[in-house]
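Re-running the complex after MR caught last week's input typo. The corrected sequence lines follow. Everything else is unchanged.
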Amino acid sequence: MHDDLPRPPSGGSGRLLPPDAGRDRPLFLVAAILVFLACIAALGARGAWHQAQNWTTELESSLTIQIRPVDGRDTEADTQRAAEIARGMPGVQAATPRTREDALALLTPWLGEGNLPDDLPLPLMVDVELEPRAARDDRVAISDLQARLDAEGMAASVDDHSRWARAVRRAAGTAQTLGLSLLALLTGAAAAVIAFAARASLAARTDVIDALHLCGAEDRFIAGLFQRRFFMLGVKSGLVGALFAALVSIGVSFSQSPADMAFFLPRWAANPFELILLGAAPLLAGLTSALSARLAVASDLRGRW
Amino acid sequence: MTASPHSDPEPVVRFDNVGMRYGRGPEILRDLSFDLPRGSFQFLTGPSGAGKTSLLKLIYLAAKPSRGLISCFGRDVATLPRDELPDLRRRIGVVFQEFRLLNHLSVFDNVSLPLRVAGKKRSEYAEDVAELLAWVGLGDKMSALPPTLSGGEQQRVAIARAVVGQPEILIADEPTGNVDPEMGMRLLRLFAELNKLGTTIVIATHDLQLVRMVDAPVMTLANGHLHIRPPRSQRQREAELREAERRDADDRPTATVPMGPEPSAQDAADDLDDEDPMDAVARAMEMPDEDDTDDGEDRDA
Ligand SMILES: Nc1ncnc2c1ncn2[C@@H]1O[C@H](COP(=O)(O)OP(=O)(O)OP(=O)(O)O)[C@@H](O)[C@H]1O
Ligand SMILES: [Mg+2]
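Corrected-run output:
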């Protein structure tokens, strides 16, 4: 009581919010998992869209001319002629006539080798590769080609693969919608979990709010404390989640999984979309978490006066 | 303090027909009308559960009345906008019955809290806080955490926190409940010093010993109603007057109004620095008198 010169304790002031002491760890974990899943869903939706894009361009940048065997016509010669005609069309890059051997090769998986009589008439194909740009809008060219083949008297039909392309697109669209819905659901779940946790953490610290409030702290001062705490928490769990999503994505693209397996799995591509997505995830998690904390504090404080 | 309601033209706190209930419960405070004049000193007593803490909550803006008017620093609390609340709060220091210290902060940080939330820098207040803590006998406990302190030590931390911002109103809910009589006197003296410097003081207490130490009005709560007993000196004067009316002036018994020398504000500040607690007790005993001499007029009106 008789300190001649009372010295204030050295060192800075203590943090107004007590350290979480493990109380926030479950939130951290759950948020990280949700961010991870959301990133995977987003990358998957993106991957599906990407894959479908590749496949449909591939499909749509080629045509197939089928020459049916007709009595009195040389099917092989007709394929040569059809290829020639096709090459003369605008927008066609190459036309390759397929021989009878090629046709047999296509049938072998179903009929086995050497089970077909040599004189069995087979339809033959011509692969036509289109210039990338000319692809789908050139309906005229296709009907043109068909007309000219008909004029030659061939039993030819031009297939533009549109049925396949449509199917692939539909599948890809479904996958993408699925991915995006998952993303929306996971984002919602993450926000709800974080909001819930912010409230719980707040309830455990009413003593701090009480003391600050009654000492004349402004609402935004108190809200700011919790907001900063939860922003950092959100960012940290978001970073962990996004990092794991990136690792999984990289892992998938380096594994030797067949293409169809990888269709729904995100493949790592260091393109801007992936990088932005993975970079934005922690930030979004941080903002969601900060906002929930802010709202929770605000409603708590409103209840006090 | 007022015998009749609303005599002071500008009280720091005014209650007008105030009633209060918790939720849908019974009204625990009824028809309270009184003023707390600026610079006044009063006790609040009443049996446990009478509503002392509830009444104080109304004063320090932690609860709203269910009816009636309360004005605080001239502001009607019913229409007080939220953003003006912190400012009023900073003008009111509160010693809570249950202390409400933050257990994760050191004694020093707990006491600095009001200054910190007011945006002051540590370097601006560190010395003052240390000095105040030394004065309440916690000079060697500044870095301690509240859970490691005794009840009385925690109480002193709570008191230091309440007074550190030099509030205009100091509200103390059982501030001496956990300390020995000697420390109780020392704390009472601190309140008296602050009162001398102009702070309006309300002390809720069960400790009649303490009440007797200061010649101040006593507000007593019972059954939801408030009864205000004027300061002893005033009652004595009134009794004397009545006596005088009955008797011949020559027979009047000698008045025993205690009148000590009035310490100046400078003395008061000096006293804070370095003093034997027993002196504090002794001086606290003398305290009552100055009430009569300067503020008495306002209060008795
Ligand atoms: N938050 C609350 N909700 C409901 N009822 C309450 C609440 N706080 C106090 N009460 C009730 O109001 C009444 C007055 O309580 P209060 O704490 O004001 O009494 P007090 O005079 O301070 O008592 P003590 O001397 O024991 O501290 C009590 O009957 C109590 O049960
Ligand atoms: Mg009480």
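None of the earlier attempt is carried over here. Chain B has two domains: 1-91+167-235, 101-166. Chain B touches chain A through 47 residues (CB under 8 Å).
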